[in-house]
Design goal:
10-stranded antiparallel β-sheet; 21% helix; 12 strands; globular; outer membrane lipoprotein receptor (LolB), chain A; 3 helices
């Protein structure tokens, strides 16, 4: 009986330590992002949806702590997805959540720590977020967020000269395009979409993809 109690206690201590480790890791990533009070970034945004012709746009991205994010186009028409604020990791980490360790996973030849974030508020539109963290650089390299109203958003980030601030040089953002209204200035492209659709899964018609390449940040 005494031996069983010791084993059980050891397991509980191990689980608690592991949970503490995940919470510490999330805190370190969040603290890195919190060092940026605001920024203005310039870049280009390429949005792809099967049935739309969307020009590449020059954009300004403005962020202000805690979670204000605005994307503005300098020229032409920009298709900005409804869930574009999901690209703000600052906003994701500013909510209350329970962190669950998902172990490690190899993604693009990198060993990343998987952490699932469950919102504690019943009013949150987010059902579940999963982040894949580069533990050595303390940055999120991939995330997936499932919402109640707007489907699932996925992001992949690449870092370069702004990695010390936790800010990416490139973001690829995948979103649900099924119920989106067509903005003024965009043209339909059914012929081209039809030819492509013969080669792709029909479910991909409801998927959109946005790529933002950042040229420069002004950080405060």
């Amino acid at each position: 009986m005494k031996y069983t109690t010791i084993i059980f206690s050891t397991i509980l201590i191990g689980i608690h330590s592991h949970a503490q480790d995940v919470n510490t890791l999330i805190k370190q990533v969040k603290n890195k992002l919190d060092n940026v009070n605001s920024y203005i970034a310039t870049g280009s945004m390429k949005t792809s949806i099967a049935y739309l012709k969307i020009p590449i746009a020059k954009v300004n991205i403005q962020y202000k702590k805690p979670n204000d994010l605005i994307i503005k186009s300098n020229n032409g028409v920009t298709f900005v997805p409804k869930g574009v604020d999901a690209i703000s990791l600052q906003k994701l980490f500013s909510s209350e959540f329970t962190a669950i360790d998902g172990g490690t996973e190899m993604i693009k030849q990198k060993k990343l720590r998987t952490v699932r974030l469950l919102p504690t508020s019943q009013q949150s539109n987010i059902v579940l977020s999963t982040v894949y963290i580069n533990e050595s650089d303390l940055v999120v390299e991939k995330s997936s967020t499932t919402t109640k109203d707007d489907g699932t958003y996925e992001m992949e980030m690449q870092y370069g000269k702004y990695i010390q601030f936790g800010l990416p040089d490139r973001i690829v953002f995948t979103f649900n395009a099924k119920d989106y209204k067509i903005p003024k200035g965009l043209t339909l492209d059914f012929d081209n979409a039809s030819s492509r659709n013969q080669k792709i899964d029909k479910t991909m018609l409801n998927k959109g993809r946005a790529e933002i390449v950042f040229q420069q940040y002004t950080i405060n």
